[in-house]
């Protein structure tokens, strides 16, 4: 038996790496396909949806090198760097060709801009072939982030439940169930009936082998739970708790950002967690907490444009908002 994906032809018991052809450009995606010796489900694992999130890229690249067909039941499709276009240009979160954020344009368009075509390709060529999806991210170069995991929440109940079970296998303190159905890759995959999660670990434009290996361990344990990886599970030091409410605070003005806290800090209602100053050092905005919460991630760059994300926070108990605002709506 063989598995055909564009220019990749993989037989049972094989692993093939190379550049996956794209129909709209000569620029291929670095990818690995592993066809196990036994039949089973097909899982997509991606890094570099955001091209400057290096922990995720290194995690997926390492998984592609270490996983062997004899330990796989089914098929693994690993795209090491999805936005290779932006990665080569060393942009931040956007493609070089059109300046768009890939994780904001799903389902994309066959006749759209470069980034929209890439999203369309992922739906038609990848999402149509898979049973599960694991997207590996980290905070961008201007973000400080506490490790956590997203699971899809805007999908059929059985898809949402399966995604939460997948998220429970990550060694992180909490998970956030996203209410968004379009824009993001894993969000849109959920609406197509694919249980999907997004791992967040690492930040500030840096990466370490320790962080990459921690994300690889999370992926391996999720694959074991799905029955696709047949090796023994690795121990978890914690089981993520559902962070039931998540919110994002945006700037109103442009200016110079002075955060007072770090990602992961617990903050109290009424506490000032940062101020925005104008170019003369005057405070023009003050961010105070409206409820007790935990900082999920925050902007750490000194320069902040108007209408730009400052802080994402979450909490477990009752919410002052009637509806949950997913922080991914504002994430860069």
Characteristic terms for this protein:
single chain, 332 residues, alpha+beta, Aminopeptidase, OB fold (Dihydrolipoamide Acetyltransferase, E2P), 2 domains, 9-stranded mixed beta sheet, 5-stranded antiparallel beta sheet, 6 helices, 20% helix, disordered C terminus
CATH homologous superfamily (4th level) name of the largest domain: Zn peptidases
Order of strands across the widest beta sheet? Answer: 3-4-6-5-7-11-9-10-12
Q: In the CATH hierarchy, what is the architecture of the largest domain at level 2?
A: 3-Layer(aba) Sandwich
The largest sheet, given as strand count, sense and whether it forms a barrel, is: 9 strands, mixed
Quick summary of this structure?
It is built from six helices and 20 strands. With 332 residues, it is α+β, with helices and mostly antiparallel strands.
